[in-house]
Amino acid sequence: MTAVVRGTAGAPGLALGRIVRLEGPGGQPRVDVDRSGNPGERLATAQAQVAAHLEDLAAELRAEGKADEAAIFDAQALLASDRALADQAAHIFADERVPLDEAVTRVAGRIAAFLAEVDDAYLQARAADVHAIGRQIAAVLQGISLDVGASVPAGAIVVAADLTPAELMLLRKRRAAGVVTASGSITSHLAILARALGLPALVGIGESWRDIPDGASALLDATGGTLLVDPTPDESGAFQVRVDVARERDRRLAGLTQVAASTADGERIVLWANIGRPEEAALAMQAGAEGIGLFRTEFLFVDRASAPGEDEQYTAYEQTLEAMGDRPVIIRTLDVGADKPLAYLPPLVEANPFLATRGIRFTRRFPELFETQLRALLRAARHGDLRIMLPMVSTPRDLAWAREMLERVTRDLERDAIPHRADLPFGIMLETPAAAVSLDRLAVDRQLAFCSIGSNDLAQYTLAADRTDPALARDYPYDDPSVFRMVRIAVQSARALELELSLCGELAGDPRHAVALVGLGLRKLSMVPAALASVKEALLGVSLADAQRQGEQACTASGQ
Ligand code: PEP
Ligand code: MG
């Protein structure tokens, strides 16, 4: 009889195949290990082996343009080499006379248990990383190969209590069709990586994983969050139709990557990509982006001990420009504060962080960060079509301050005869209602070259609803009619002022909303690279008049 297992949709996708259970390291090939050596040295060797294995996987992902996911392995490699872990394991080994691999597992277990208790979903999810590292070091000490799943056939649906990100990479190499795990959440590294690899993953199914028989046939609907075990022929037939439709859609979209975007009646629309690291520029190109509409440079500044220096930033911007050739690259200056604090700067005590020192206000508070970034940007601008964009501008004073800094930095570079370009376009994000309704006031800066609507923050401030609070998302959605009305106002002002306007918030990456935005008058949209083809398909399927009707509907949302 068919059994239905429910879990969390960790990475969407459909797969149809046979279950292969991974019961832990027992099934992996073993090699003889010498257990007689100095325990400290054995431990150090095992740590180095695991770290090298993880670094290789990071390099592999980086070569695919998946820099954020590679960083997961970089962080795990650092954890694997951690001295404190080795010291504590050596103590347990000496004091309690347990095998070395067990000592490592215990230490990792303690650290993970501590993280799991912290009242923070992100840190809780990191407990799995520590477990993963402990398991891998223990495996090496036991002489078990790190090549998990060596016996997994192509097309298998792999079921396990847990999988490390490294194991997931290896399963992809074996061409597994999908994975199902007892543990894991939407924010676990397993799920993040599975999404990046395009491998369907159902996570967090809990104890029911024990009841899934090895070798059973199964239908994995990781989009809907279910696994059907032992389906009837009718169920399999219907599922196969869904798989075929999804495959056909992927093929169709792949064929669109190099097609220019327009409406069905030929109104040309420019589609750009949003990126967070230089390596993602290659991914954006492959996905058919005509430029970078938003480079979130804060990713260069977070999760580290100090801010990146001028030369490091220069290299990052130069790499991006080189990857994009002569296409435009809009680089947003540092946008931190509120939900994106910088650990190496003094914490700001604020009653309402989202209404306090964020975006350009942050750089006004720490101008040396802005100055270093501007120097790096002006120097890098010689390598392509670089445009600078300021986040969270809400008053002419914000803009005037930034303009003055730009002029000062330009003078300094000229004085010191440092090669640079000073005539590059300078623009702002429209992320506050203040900016959206008063473009004319901001445009008193005659050199203001362009604006880009940040609809995520514009929604947050229009609806006065914290964008990070899931409890508010349903009643105060990012696509509320009030947000489209703000967009309409900004479009009309930009047109009257002859200012170039684009939109780079999440609205642009949803095909339905992208059509409405074009209907409201936008001709440049920027989105995650993965959304480019489906947005293009939607645009190619509507006339401009249809899009205009949908734009007006989005502003009134009849039916919502
Ligand atoms: C936005 O606010 O819409 C935007 C693109 O910026 P971020 O999401 O980085 O705040
Ligand atoms: Mg924003």
Describe this structure in words.
- With 560 residues, the chain is an alpha/beta fold.
- It folds into 3 domains: 3-25 and 150-252, Phosphohistidine domain (Glucose Oxidase, domain 1); 39-142, PtsI, HPr-binding domain (Enzyme I, Chain A, domain 2, Orthogonal Bundle); 255-556, Phosphoenolpyruvate-binding domains (TIM Barrel, Alpha-Beta Barrel).
- The chain is 46% helix and 14% strand.
- The protein is built from 20 helices and 16 strands.
- It has helices at residues 39-63, 67-80, 83-96, 100-117, 121-141, 165-173, 189-197, 233-254, 280-286, 310-324, 360-365, 367-380, 396-415, 433-437, 439-442, 455-463, 481-497, 511-519, 532-540, 544-556, and strands at 3-6, 8-11, 14-22, 157-160, 178-181, 201-203, 217-221, 226-229, 270-275, 292-296, 328-332, 385-390, 426-430, 448-453, 500-503, 524-527.
- The strands form 2 sheets. Strands 1-8-7-3-4-5-6-2 form an 8-stranded mixed β-sheet.
- Helix 9 (280-286) links the parallel strand 9 (270-275) and strand 10.
- Helix 2 (67-80) crosses helix 5 (121-141).
- It is globular.
- Residues 25-30 have low confidence and may be disordered.
- Magnesium ion binds next to helix 16.
Give me the number of helical elements: 20
The CATH class designation of the largest domain is Alpha Beta
Structural class of the secondary structure composition? alpha/beta
Task: Characterize the overall form.
Answer: globular
Biggest β-sheet description: 8 strands, mixed
Cα-based radius of gyration, to the nearest Å: 26 Å
CATH topological fold name of the largest domain:
TIM Barrel
Give the termini separation: 41 Å
Approximate helicity band: 40-55%
Instruction: Work out the count of structural domains.
Output: 3
SS elements, strand count: 16
Note poorly predicted spans: 25-30
Task: Report mean pLDDT, rounded to a whole number.
Answer: 90
- Widest sheet: strand order? 1-8-7-3-4-5-6-2
Bound molecules: phosphoenolpyruvate, magnesium ion
Instruction: Based on the coordinates given, report the CATH architecture of the largest domain.
Output: Alpha-Beta Barrel
CATH superfamily of the largest domain: Phosphoenolpyruvate-binding domains
